Every structure is written in C-alpha cells, then in structure tokens.
Amino acid sequence: MKEIRNILCIGAGYVGGPTMAVIADHCPEYRITVVDIDARRIDAWNSPRLPIYEPGLDQVVARCRGRNLFYSTDIPKGVREADIIFVSVNTPTKTFGSGAGRASDLQFVERTARQIVEYAQDGKIVVEKSTLPVRTAQALSRVLQANAKGLRFQIVSNPEFLAEGTAIQDLDDPERVLIGGTDDPEGQEAVEAVARIYTHWVPREKIITTSLWSSELTKLVANAFLAQRISSINSISALCERTGADVDQVSQAIGMDSRIGPKFLRAGIGFGGSCFRKDILNLVYLCEHYGLPEVARYWESVVDINDYQARRFVEKMLEAMFNTVTEKKVAILGFAFKANTGDTRDTPALAVCRQLLAERASLAICDPRALDNARQELGDADGNVSYTPDPYLACQDAHAVVLLTDWPDFQRLDYRRILDSLQKPAFLFDGRNCLPHQALFNLGYNVYPTGKPPWTHFP
Ligand code: UDX
Ligand code: ADP
C-alpha cells in the first residue's frame, strides 16, 4: 500500500474540525486538508474566530494552520490529492419518510461517497468518522465500489469518542482508539494505515482493532450506556423528591462501588447534545428492524425518561409558583446543553423554555457562549423572550431564577445582589444541582434543587 501523505477530512464540524487539528499537531509530516460544502464555515476556520468554541482549539489551529493544516471548499481537488479520506459529515435523525424520528438520515454520507467516486483518480482508504448506524459501511462500500473507473476503496470505521468542551484533551489523550475493518488482507492493511496515524501519540495498547460492524455498533452502545446512566439517576431523582431522600447522596454512595463507578451520575434536567438521543434512537430503529421489539423498548425508555425529566422540572416550577407563571419574568441561566460549549443541539434547556413559553412566561435568557444559537433555536417561538450575556440584567425584576446549564460562571455570581433585584417571594430552581442550596436559602431564596427536598421559607 502506498505511503500516506495526504489526509482529507470531509465535514468541518464539531468532530472533523478538532480531530484534524490534533492529528495535524502530532503528525507534521502529513498534509491535512479539511473541506466542507459550507463556505461560511470554511471562511471561519480560516479566520481568527473559529466556527466552534472548544477550549485549547485556537492554540492548536494557530500552530498548524498554513503549516500542514488547510481548510478549503475545493472538494474535487481535496479528493484527488488524498490518500486517506475521513468522512465527518452530519448524520441527523431522519425527519421524514420511513424511519422518521428514529433512523439516521444518511443523505449527507451518501452524497459524500458519490463525490469521492466522482473525483477520485485512484483507490483510497475511506474512514467513517461520523457516528453511523451499524452496516452503513456496507452501503458506503456499495456506492464506492460501483464506480466505472475500476477503483478499489477500503472502508474503515474509526468512531470518535470526544466530548464537547474537552475535545482537545480527549483527542490528545484518548482512553482508546477504535478501528474496525474488513477481514481480508487489504482491509487489515487499511486498518493498519489508520492505526499508524494514531501511533504518533497514542500508545499502541490503547488502539483496538475490531470488525467493521463491531466498531460501528460500539459507538452507538457507548453513547447509549452513558445516556442510560443519566436517565437512571434522573428517574431516581423523581423518587427522591417524593420521599425526601437526596439524590446526590445516593449517587455518591452507589458510585463508590467500583463496579458502578462515580461518573455520569449527576441528576439534572436531562442529557442533550448532538449524540445521545440520536444514537439511542438509531439503536432503537436497528432493534426494531432486526425484529427485537423488547430490546427496542428497553433503550427507548432512556429517551422517554429524559423527556419526562424536563417536563417534570417545569411542572415542579409551576406547582411552587402558585400554579402560574403567566406574564411572570423568568431568568434562564444557561442554554447550552452543558458547560464549556456554545452548542445547543438537543439542549434540554430548549424543552424547558418552550414549555415555560407555552405557560406564557416571559423569558430572559443568559448564556456565556450560546446566545446566538439560543436565538436561532427559539426564533420561531411565540412569546416574550430576551437574550443577554449579563446575568444580573437577566435576573432584574424576575420572579424566578432557573439554572439550566452547569457553567462555573453562574456558580460565582453575587446572589445577594441578584436577590435584591428579584420579585418576592424569590424562587430559585437549580436544574443542575450546582449551587449552594442552604446558603442561598439563608440569603432569603426559596430554593428547589433536583432530587432533593426544597429549602423554602413558606410555612
Ligand atoms: C457525548 C459522549 O460523552 C462522547 O463520548 C461522544 O463522543 C459524544 O457524546 P457530549 O455530547 O459532548 O459527548 O457530552 P457529555 O459530556 O457526554 O454530556 C452529555 C449530556 O449529558 C449533557 O447534556 C450533560 O449535561 C448531561 N450529563 C452528563 C448529565 O446530565 N449528568 C451527568 O452525570 C453527565
Ligand atoms: P458533527 O457534530 O458530526 O461534526 P456538524 O454538523 O458539526 O456534525 O458537521 C458536519 C459538517 O459536514 C457540516 O459543516 C456540513 O456542512 C458538512 N457536510 C455535510 N455534507 C457534506 C458534503 N457532502 N460535503 C462536504 N461537507 C459536508
């Protein structure tokens, strides 16, 4: 197999962007080009203000851009020159037709395969980087191999496990790198070529090679297991609120069992992000497709509990606030799906805000990074919504302060100053359990944590 020199990544998003930057950083001898159909995105990658916010990314891009990392919209040239192509295009849940609401929409992946076939002049390794449902490789392979030029393509699955907000750290020091390929010698050679990229900085024992199908399925299962832990603890948070137990105490105690472990047991308003819901729904679709309805229902319940948790949060607010929020100002602290990102894809804050707007509350939304996205997400919403980066302004004259994202910035606010500017009685709902509840109660707030008894001044 010819030596790898040129790497192309198709799709300059949350996965492709950071991944290629880190590969470029560790592999100065490779020339890496990232292409996208979205010219505005590519312009942003070439500008001082990158299109995504990720701690540490600016520095990596500054080191590599123009050296061995290039951003371009010239897909034909990129494909022609590449020895290896990573496919990192988006795979949203289908919104129409067969499998709507569950199956992945593979139109972007298929289009990419057709672009590769059209422009390639020699055979290449094509790496699936986007999360794809099991057996996508087969479809990808059929489109690629059906070329009239007699070219041979090798398909490799190399799912990305990075989490947003810690992408650079996760890429620099991954817990594992998973590479799946076909069993034949060409397939194994292709797997080895991809593994060689990672050996520049990842210890060999952390690089796992499997079959294509196992690799594709592992990515879905990893996300489903993580999401399942969150839904499990969120379901228990509901029981804690009814019984007076404290969900954080329960999490801490069960997490000390090394078989359970302490991570991903924080109760809150539910999980968000571009992966969890999409991947579970995909898993559900696959189980249904393969005639396993019981398994499908099991995984679907993880998503059901997530939706229930956001609904339950608003119902708790209503009950506390005398069964009405109509025309009351509610300050929303945090709209991103988690801290340290501007990403709002599938953020549970959206469900909470929409429900509050349906109750005719007026919302003042504050987020350090996600206001532009929040404006887009709520662009079609009826009702009174304002946006501000200033939390004190958001809280001015509000009836309730609602914390929806665990940004450290919100933990450092002057809550005495905020209290002075609130309507009384002052309500504070902590959807992420990251504020000092008793201290806030002592200041004068009526505090409603998640999965714990409330702290109220009412008789
Ligand atoms: C996730 C996976 O972690 C990553 O491996 C995969 O590649 C992509 O999907 P990400 O979507 O960036 O990454 O976010 P993650 O940090 O996993 O958090 C997902 C959601 O779960 C967030 O909304 C977060 O607030 C929520 N969460 C997480 C909880 O509610 N409780 C927890 O204990 C942990
Ligand atoms: P992810 O979180 O999986 O990285 P994103 O939506 O952030 O998803 O990024 C996917 C990127 O792929 C987008 O910038 C989109 O414009 C790009 N894309 C989709 N289809 C194609 C295509 N056929 N050719 C090039 N880029 C594409």
Percent of residues in helices comes to 40-55%
Overall 3D shape: elongated
Q: Please, how many helices?
A: 18
Q: Specify the biggest β-sheet.
A: 6 strands, parallel
Separation of the first and last Cα atoms: 77 Å
* Uncertain stretches of 5 or more adjacent residues: none
Q: Mean of the pLDDT scores?
A: 95
**Count of beta strands:** 14
Tell me the fraction of residues in β-strands, as a range. 5-15%
* Lateral arrangement of strands in the main beta sheet: 3-2-1-4-5-6
The structural class is alpha/beta
Alpha-carbon Rg, integer:
24 Å
Q: Bound small molecules, which ones?
A: uridine-5'-diphosphate-xylopyranose, adenosine-5'-diphosphate
Describe it for me?
- With 459 residues, the protein is α/β, with parallel strands linked by helices.
- Helix content is 44%, strand content 13%.
- The chain has 18 helices and 14 strands.
- The strands form three sheets. Strands 3-2-1-4-5-6 form a six-stranded parallel sheet, with helices on both faces. It has a six-stranded parallel sheet with strand order 11-10-9-12-13-14, sandwiched between helices.
- Helix 5 runs parallel beside helix 6 and helix 12 crosses helix 13.
- The longest helix has 32 residues.
- The protein is elongated, with a radius of gyration of 24 Å.
- The model has no long low-confidence stretch (mean pLDDT 95).
Summarize the structure.
The protein has helices spanning 16-26, 39-45, 57-64, 75-81, 107-119, 136-145, 167-172, 185-198, 212-243, 247-255, 276-289, 293-320, 348-358, 371-377, 391-395, 408-411, 415-421, 437-443; strands at residues 6-10, 31-35, 69-72, 84-87, 125-128, 154-157, 177-181, 207-211, 329-333, 362-366, 385-387, 400-403, 427-430, 446-448.
